[in-house]
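Intended use. Records like the one below are meant for learning the mapping from a protein sequence to its folded structure. Do not use them to infer anything beyond what is encoded.
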Amino acid sequence: MVLQSDILPKRRVRYEILGPLRISVEERSAAISAHKVELLLAVLLIRADHIVTAGQLIDELWGGRPPGRATAGLHVYVSELRKFLDRQNISDRPIETCSPGYLLRQDSAEIDFQTFLTLLRSGRKAAAECRNEEAIDFLERALSLWRGPVLGGFAEGPIVSNFITWLNEEQTECLELLVESQLQLGRHREVVGMLFSLIAESPLHEAFYRQLMLALYRSERKADALRVYQKARGILSDELGLDPCRTLQSMQRSILLDEESLLHASLSA
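Structure written out for the chain above:
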């Protein structure tokens, strides 16, 4: 017997966590208003197609101070999550009970951070092969998926916190690679404003200072490039009690000496 569910086309389901968590089914999006239900879905998405134990979920939901009936509370939140996903008309029930915990079956659903990582890998490979135009396309598409801080900025338990830290590092690499590919194509003037913004957001990230110094130098702004080094040195000293890294110091020396290699050197070393 052929079931109706076997002949109906599957709905396009997309889970988005590169910003506030939301679920899109076809053209309609929805968010979860209950924070612990939202957090539960976030953990299951991070570990999609893998079992997350009840103990791990309790740690994520309540930290080191779970209530006396935490297991019962977890069952309630799982039930609420299933009902929420049902209301979104997701054809297959993706949340499965699998001893010793729960699993979110991804099937054909998309998860935006996975798409981001796929595009980043493609951009990284293209950049390594000096296919800079292709690299820029991949990397810009990857970054366009970000709508704000991962999961809207909340980070509570170890699974979510570690995931956010790791994914933010991947985003930073993506930005570095994008700037480097632009510099390889001689687009130094175009990246100056972007790099000033990136430094304002990540004032301890030395790679952005190095890239900005080179972009300014290539834009015939040697004095500004050297001022960027002084700013980096001051911030690193005030915040961490450290001198700039060797690569940043080397960039300053090269600019002071007007080394010709700066006009065509790669920053990837």
